[in-house]
């Protein structure tokens, strides 16, 4: 299907330079969408002429049209334990995470949760994510199947852990290797789906399992490697005891060949300069999870420091320790963390973090994360004045940067009116339908 979408277009078409991320906006702009791809982008005065003017038009004037958001670290089996009280990382895992994940031995639980989880992502304007399942291969089949039915570009993987976890959640080095291979062969590169080799974190993998993970990472260099590092001080201390021969927590992974392009490490809070240099030099990615880091009291991720070292950084909700599926809420907390560190993030950087940075983190910035001819048509329609308060605030905003900044600080799922995945509208609120229906043609 070929159609036009009209509204205020805003995105980050180039990677951040020395001066940081840059916005590009077209106040009255149009996307030409053809067969699930963006064919053209430009001002309405140019595109709504000639033969294009007869195409179907979705008119979202007054709304912001931005690329679909990318969440680079989220646990779908933890959907139901979001907002559980009062623990730090290691206690959180034992008290809430492991019991919740044990329920995913039942494929019906996995299937029902996967449907809810993906709908919740879409309701919040998130069109792509890097997702952890549980130790059960069926949990990954469930989320990939549900994503395929929605046409989403999604990466996911089975959690690998063979020690320091309850018996019913442990695999082995051999089954981790075999099951991951089978899942990669079944899902990696099918439709828009990509596989992530997913050891939970160093403490729950034996030496033999880490060796098996390294073998998978070598055999499938275009699959992701997805895990956690240096989130919490007690965790870092535990890793030091478990791996006395490693220079640092990151070095445990590096020693097994796991620090490489397409390796995404959640948190990266308690790293040193050498760790950051290695991540940057080897193309690995840090997932910045501000709501989770604040909620579990883990610490403050220094975005400016990571970028100065040349590390790729994506933004992530980390639900269930994260407290919202909304990337607007997540960006607001990222701003506050950076403010505490004395380097508040600009509106352009917040938009970049929610969109293009996630695409760069997943090495998909030639397909998603910004608008350009040939890019996959994942985009959202956001209403900066969707609530009484945000409407009042939006009236005071002069520039696009001011509008965006207030949207990031005040926004949530109520501010997402329509979500297009691969060119198909997958979410339409009443307000979004009303906005999109008025197919007014230019004079
Ligand atoms: Zn996590």
Topology, element by element:
Elements: E1 2-11, E2 24-34, E3 37-43, H1 44-47, E4 57-67, E5 69-75, H2 89-102, H3 107-123, E6 126-132, H4 137-150, E7 153-157, E8 159-160, H5 173-187, E9 193-199, H6 207-219, E10 224-229, H7 233-242, H8 249-254, E11 263-267, H9 273-282, E12 285-288, H10 290-295, H11 303-308, E13 312-315, H12 327-340, H13 347-354, H14 356-361, E14 379-382, H15 388-394, H16 400-410, E15 416-421, E16 424-428, H17 430-437
Parallel strand pairs: 1-4, 5-6, 6-7, 7-9, 8-9, 9-10, 10-11, 11-12, 12-13
Antiparallel strand pairs: 1-2, 2-3, 4-14, 14-15, 15-16
Helix pairs in contact: 3-4, 4-5, 5-6, 12-13, 12-16, 13-16, 15-16
The chain binds zinc ion.
Number of domains: 2
**Biggest pleated-sheet summary:** 9 strands, parallel
Query: What Rg do the Cα atoms give?
Result: 21 Å
Ligand set: zinc ion
- Overall, the morphology is globular
Task: Name the CATH homologous superfamily of the largest domain.
Answer: Metal-dependent hydrolases
Descriptive report:
With 443 residues, the chain is of the alpha/beta class. It folds into two domains: 2-68 and 371-437, Urease, subunit C, domain 1 (Roll), CATH 2.30.40; 69-325, TIM Barrel. The protein is 38% helix and 23% strand. The chain is built from 17 helices and 16 strands. It has helices at 44-47, 89-102, 107-123, 137-150, 173-187, 207-219, 233-242, 249-254, 273-282, 290-295, 303-308, 327-340, 347-354, 356-361, 388-394, 400-410, 430-437, and strands spanning 2-11, 24-34, 37-43, 57-67, 69-75, 126-132, 153-157, 159-160, 193-199, 224-229, 263-267, 285-288, 312-315, 379-382, 416-421, 424-428. Strands 5, 6, 7, 8, 9, 10, 11, 12 and 13 form a nine-stranded parallel sheet that branches. Helix 5 (173-187) runs parallel beside helix 6 (207-219) and helix 13 (347-354) packs across helix 16 (400-410). The longest helix is centred in the N-terminal third of the chain and has 17 residues, at 107-123. The protein is globular, with a radius of gyration of 21 Å. The site of zinc ion has 5 residues, from strand 5.
């Amino acid at each position: 299907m070929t159609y036009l979408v009209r509204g205020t277009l805003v995105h980050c078409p180039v990677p951040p330079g020395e001066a940081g991320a840059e916005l590009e906006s077209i106040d009255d702009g149009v996307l030409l969408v053809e067969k699930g791809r963006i064919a053209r982008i430009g001002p309405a005065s140019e595109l709504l002429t000639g033969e294009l003017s007869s195409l179907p038009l979705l008119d979202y004037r007054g709304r912001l049209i931005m690329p679909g958001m990318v969440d680079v670290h989220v646990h779908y089996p933890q959907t139901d334990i979001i907002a559980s009280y009062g623990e730090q990382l290691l206690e959180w895992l034992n008290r809430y995470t492991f019991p919740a994940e044990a329920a995913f031995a039942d494929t019906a639980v996995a299937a029902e949760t996967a449907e809810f989880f993906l709908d919740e992502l879409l309701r919040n304007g998130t069109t792509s994510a890097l997702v952890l399942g549980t130790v059960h291969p069926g949990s990954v089949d469930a989320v990939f199947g549900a994503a395929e039915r929605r046409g989403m570009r999604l990466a996911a993987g089975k959690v690998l852990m063979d020690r320091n976890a309850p018996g019913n959640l442990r695999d082995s080095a051999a089954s981790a290797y075999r099951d991951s291979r089978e899942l990669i062969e079944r899902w990696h590169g099918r439709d828009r789906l990509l596989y992530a080799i997913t050891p939970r974190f160093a403490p729950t993998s034996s030496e033999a399992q880490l060796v098996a993970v390294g073998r998978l990472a070598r055999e499938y260099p275009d699959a992701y490697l997805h895990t956690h590092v240096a989130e919490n001080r007690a965790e870092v201390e535990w890793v030091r005891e478990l791996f006395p021969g490693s220079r640092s927590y990151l070095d445990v992974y590096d020693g097994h060949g796991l620090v490489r392009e397409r390796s995404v490490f959640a948190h990266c809070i308690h790293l040193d300069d050498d760790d950051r240099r290695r991540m940057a030099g080897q193309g690995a990615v840090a997932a910045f999870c501000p709501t989770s880091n604040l909620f579990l009291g883990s610490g403050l991720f220094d975005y400016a420091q990571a970028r100065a070292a040349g590390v790729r950084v994506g933004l992530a909700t980390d639900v269930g320790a994260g407290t919202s599926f909304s990337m607007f809420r997540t960006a607001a907390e990222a701003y506050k963390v950076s403010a505490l560190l004395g380097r508040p993030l600009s509106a352009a950087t917040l938009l970049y973090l929610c969109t293009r940075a996630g695409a760069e983190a997943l090495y998909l910035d030639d397909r998603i994360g910004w608008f350009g001819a040939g890019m996959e048509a994942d985009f959202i329609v956001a209403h900066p004045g969707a609530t009484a308060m945000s409407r009042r605030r939006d009236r005071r905003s002069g520039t696009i940067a001011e509008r965006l900044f207030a949207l990031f600080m005040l926004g949530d799922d109520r501010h997402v009116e329509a979500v297009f995945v691969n060119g198909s509208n997958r979410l339409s609120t009443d307000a979004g339908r009303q906005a999109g229906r008025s197919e007014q043609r230019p004079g």
